[in-house]
Design brief:
It is built from 10 helices and 10 strands. The chain is of the alpha/beta class. The protein binds zinc ion.
């Protein structure tokens, strides 16, 4: 994903970001990210943070989520079209089946800068009392870079989504809930330039539009890069306001106002194909911290940069948002659920 800067006051920073891009970075970064990246060393050793017990985070087990990330990182690079990517698919499908989730791998072909490629989105479609859909998204592919294992990008959100699937597949849901593990979010080229990105989400949005499922989709919640030890998630101005408000107010109520902060930024990511089709969407992403700590899209995006507690916090917020959306979109006569 990349960040888009459009404020005039950012002009100087835009020039700085061009400099960064020329040095091999992708996209642009904000003022603080730029200045702090120059000042801060790549990493400072910190004591291991542990996840709170699952009963303190809505049943969401941050330690389980972290184990998934560890297992995915152990596979190695997981770039679309590679053996590592296929092994990641197998891992995700195996875990989902073990949770009793209905799994639906959806393969598709797409042109890429490397030629025609087969990719695969892995979908979980959990029937609910209402046919209206709540859609969770993550990508599971990793950026095509040497020795890039993507602990935060995309291991962290994939781990959270697997743990979320475990809970939601066992729950009696008022809304139909879909979870999509998307392929091909990352650009094959170093730079993020349309249409060389978001292959999986564009495919899913197009398929759902054709099938009519998209018109029943009430909310799309995307998570991406949410595992950092110093997690600090800004509001994304490309996301839908009311849905962003709902997520951020939930986080604040749960005591995570220091992580879900009120600053805003603009991010291009897997939610954009849904935003363009006028579906309410929110991107929950911390792009700044990995850039500031210097590990974003580098071989230093490793497990030691992550905290199980960060995964637990985001998982807690997601699981707490579900009943609120169910209440908001409950159809008259539908059975009330806790
Ligand atoms: Zn990335």
């Amino acid at each position: 994903m990349r960040k888009r800067i459009f404020h005039l006051r950012m002009l100087v920073l835009f020039v700085a970001s061009l400099f960064l891009a020329a040095c091999g970075g992708k996209g642009a970064v904000t003022s603080e990210a730029t200045s702090e990246a120059a000042a801060a060393p790549a990493s400072t050793p910190q004591p291991q943070q542990t996840a709170p017990p699952a009963d303190k985070t809505g049943g969401f087990d941050g330690q389980r989520a972290f184990q998934h990330v560890s297992d995915l990182v152990a596979i190695g690079p997981r770039t679309a079209g590679t053996e590592g990517n296929h092994r990641a698919q197998d891992y995700i499908i195996g875990q989902l089946k073990a949770f009793g989730c209905p799994v639906d791998p959806e393969a598709f072909h797409t042109p890429t800068p490397l030629g025609d490629m087969e990719m695969r989105n892995v979908l979980v479609k959990i029937p609910g009392t209402s046919p209206d859909i709540l859609l969770f998204l993550t990508h599971y592919d990793t950026k095509r870079l040497p020795n890039f294992v993507g602990a935060d990008d995309s291991g962290s959100s994939t781990g959270v989504m697997l743990e979320l699937a475990r809970l939601l597949c066992a729950r009696k849901n008022a809304l139909t809930i879909w979870l999509a593990f998307l392929d091909g979010e990352e650009a094959f080229n170093l730079e993020w330039k349309d249409p060389d990105n978001t292959y999986g989400s564009r495919e899913l949005a197009a398929r759902m539009a054709l099938s009519g499922d998209l018109s029943r989709t009430k909310a799309v919640l995307l998570v991406d890069m949410i595992g950092s030890r110093d997690l600090r998630i800004k509001r994304d101005t490309n996301s839908t306001s009311w849905l962003t408000d709902l997520v951020w107010s939930t986080a604040s109520r749960l005591g995570y106002g220091d992580i879900f902060v009120s600053n805003a930024t603009a991010v291009e990511d897997d939610h954009i194909p849904f935003v363009r089709r006028s579906v309410a969407s929110v991107d929950i992403i911390d792009l700044d911290t990995p850039a500031r700590l210097g590990y974003w899209h580098t071989p230093q995006d490793t497990l030691d940069k992550l905290s199980p507690r960060s995964l637990a916090v985001v998982g807690h917020v997601l699981i707490a948002v579900v009943p609120q959306l169910e209440q908001k979109f409950a159809r008259p006569g539908a059975a009330k659920l806790p």
